[in-house]
Amino acid sequence: MISLGHYLILSGIVFSIGLIGVTTSRNVLKVLLSLELLLAASNLSFVAFSKFNGDYAGQLIVFFVILVAAAEVAIGLAIIVLMYRRLSTIQADELKEMKW
Amino acid sequence: MSFFFFFLFAAILIAASLAVVYARNPLYNVLALVVTIFALSCLFVTLEAFFVGMILLLVYAGAVLVFFLFVVICLNLNTAGRQQASPWLFQGLGTLAGMLFAGSFALALMSFFKAQAIPASNLRGTIEAVGKILFTDYLLPFEMTSLLLLVAVFGIVSLAQGALSTGKDEAL
Asked: Which of A9, A12, A81 sits opposite B75 (nearest CB)?
C-alpha cells in the first residue's frame, strides 16, 4: 500500500531536482521555472500530510501557495521582460549593474 | 490499483521535472513544467484532494504556464548553445545546498518505515469540505490574498510604466 513515506520521498526527489535547477542554471527564466518545481514539491508533501493527518489545513495552505506563486510569476516575468529590454539577454551573469 | 497509479504518475513527475531543468530549448522547459503540473494534479487526486488538484490544473497549467509560454515566444529566446559553465562559487553553493538536502533526505528515508504505519484518513478534499473551512477558519488569510494580488497588479503596472519611459529615453 502507498504510505506517507512514498509521497515524501517523491516530493524530496522533485525538490532536489528543482534545487539543482535554481542553483546551476544561468538562464533567469529557467531559474523561475525551477522555482515552480520547488513549490510543486512542497505542495505535494503538504497534501500528503493533510491526507495522512486527517486535517484540511494542508490543502488550504496549498491553495494559498498557488495564489502566492501566481503573483510571484507575474512579477518575475515582468522583471525578466524588463531585463531583456535593457540588456537584450536573460543570462543571469549579464546582470552586473548592482555589483560594487 | 492505487499502487500502479502512484508509480505511473511519480515516474511522469520525475521525468518531466528532469526535463524542466535539463532541456536546452526554453519552450521545452515550459512544456515539461505543464506535464509536471498535470502529473502532480493526478497525484493530488490519488490523495483525494480533488479541489486543490483542479485548482492546480486551472490556475497553473491554464494561466501561469500560458503566461510563461507567452513570454518565451514574445522574447524569441534562442539560448540553445549559449550554455556557459557556471562559476565555481555557484557550483560550490549548489553542492553545499545539495549536500544539506541529501542529509534531510536521508532522515526522511530512515523514517520511511515508521511512516508506513500511519494509516490514511478518510478525508476527502471536495469543494464543499474545503470551501466550508476556507470561508470560516481561514477567512482572514483568504481575504488578505486579494490584497496580495492587488499589490502584485500595482507592481506590474509600475514596472511596465518604467519600461515604457526608459524605452522612450533610450530612443531619444
From this structure: A81
Over 50: is that where the pLDDT of B171 sits?
A: no
CATH of the domain at A34: 1.10.287.3510
Structural domain count, chain B: 2
In tens, the pLDDT along B146-170 reads: 999 999 999 999 988 876 665 555 4
| Residue from A81, A31, A21 nearest B21 by CA | A21
Amino acid at B96: L
Q: What is the ipTM of this complex?
A: 0.90
* CB < 8 Å to B141, chain A: 64
Same domain, B162 and B117: no
Range of the domain at B151: 138-172
The closest alpha carbon to B170, from A88, A22, A74, A42, belongs to A88
All 3 cell numbers of residue B49?
484532494
Distance of CA A96 to the CA centre of its chain: 25
Q: How far is B45 from chain A (nearest CA, A)?
A: 10
Length in residues, chain A: 100
Domain match, B74 and B143 both: no
Q: What is the value of pTM for the model shown?
A: 0.85
What's the CATH code of the domain at B64?
Answer: 1.20.120.1200
What's the confidence (pLDDT) of residue B163?
66
Q: Measuring CA to CA, how many Å separate B164 from each of A81, A86, B159, B169?
A: 12, 11, 9, 9
The boundaries of the domain holding residue A66 are 4-94
Residue B162 in domain: yes
User: What residues does B78 pair with on adjacent strands?
Assistant: none
Chain B CB within 8 Å of residue A87 CB? no
